[in-house]
TrEMBL record:
Keywords: Isomerase. The keyword Isomerase applies. It comes from the Bacteria. GO terms for molecular function: glutamate racemase activity. This is Glutamate racemase. Pfam families: Asp_Glu_race. It comes from Streptosporangium lutulentum. Its EC number is 5.1.1.3.
Length: 270
């Protein structure tokens, strides 16, 4: 069976890693958009256009599911993707883990890009699930871009800056950008007082398997990994190889649990 993942860049790696860990036999098609990234500052119409262009590039493939491991693309283009592919091919989106963070009743912060932090989308999520409790919104300036470049020093600087601006009473942090789990260890180290990081990659992968009616089977053979760059065959960018998970996916290796980003709570895809 084959699953395509559509994102502007390396934010698809954590979900791809979880899929490959839970079902190594799945063929994965990783659709990145280096010509159009970043998607965040684009208009909704432009984001939808880029996502649908990636989808059209894989439309002739024998796909069993499509996953959008990008919060912005999910809220913007998921309906259009579902209109194109469902019911024949299930489409799974991603939602930041605000709901499980709020369910603990503990104070938490949402780390996200500046655009997402200021968005109506994030405000609606918080209003829907925080039950009136205050939620700290922290714009992580330059963090997604540093991760995309594979610049760990710049990523650490951006993390340190965001950590300073995260109030000390927060016991949890929602990773509100799918790039951030690639540096979750650095985020956790920057805030020893934070007990929980909330991420969505594992739950999105599990939701995908549920939509496919597939049980988890880590003892299977290894499927192929194909990469499309703005619709053309290619390879993962050099920046992906900075991260152990990216190197493993690029080389077609079996994914072990230690390669996957750590998070103590997760939210399902939809």
């Amino acid at each position: 069976m084959a699953v395509a993942l559509i994102d502007s860049g390396l934010g698809l790696l954590p979900t791809a890693g979880w899929l490959r860990y839970l079902r190594p036999d799945l063929d994965l098609v990783l659709c990145l958009d280096p010509e159009g990234m970043p998607w965040g500052p684009r208009s909704e119409a432009s984001i939808t256009e880029r996502v649908l262009a990636a989808a059209k590039a894989v439309a002739e493939m024998e796909l069993d599911a499509i996953v959008v491991p990008c919060n912005t693309a999910s809220v913007t283009a998921l309906d259009a993707l579902r209109a194109m592919f469902e019911p024949g091919v299930p489409v799974v989106g991603t939602v930041p883990a605000v709901k499980p963070a709020a369910a603990t009743g503990e104070p938490f912060a949402v780390w996200a890009t500046a655009a997402t932090t200021a968005s109506d989308y994030q405000a609606r999520l918080i209003d829907a699930f925080a039950n009136g409790r205050p939620v700290e919104r922290v714009a992580c300036l330059g963090l997604a871009e540093a991760v995309e470049r594979g610049d760990l020093e710049a990523a650490r600087e951006a993390i340190a800056d965001a950590a300073k601006r995260t109030p000390g009473h927060c016991t949890g942090v929602v990773l509100g950008c799918t790039h951030y789990p690639l540096v979750s260890a650095e985020i956790a180290a920057s805030m020893p007082g934070v007990a929980n990081l909330y991420d969505s990659a594992e739950a999105v992968a599990r939701q995908t398997l549920r939509r496919l009616n597939l049980p988890e089977r880590s003892d299977t053979g290894l499927g192929a990994v194909e990469v499309l760059l703005s619709g053309r065959a290619g390879t993962l960018p050099a920046s992906a190889h900075v991260f152990p998970l990216g190197r493993a996916i690029a080389s077609g290796e079996r994914i072990t649990r230690d390669l996957l980003p750590e998070a103590t709570s997760r939210t399902p895809g939809h």
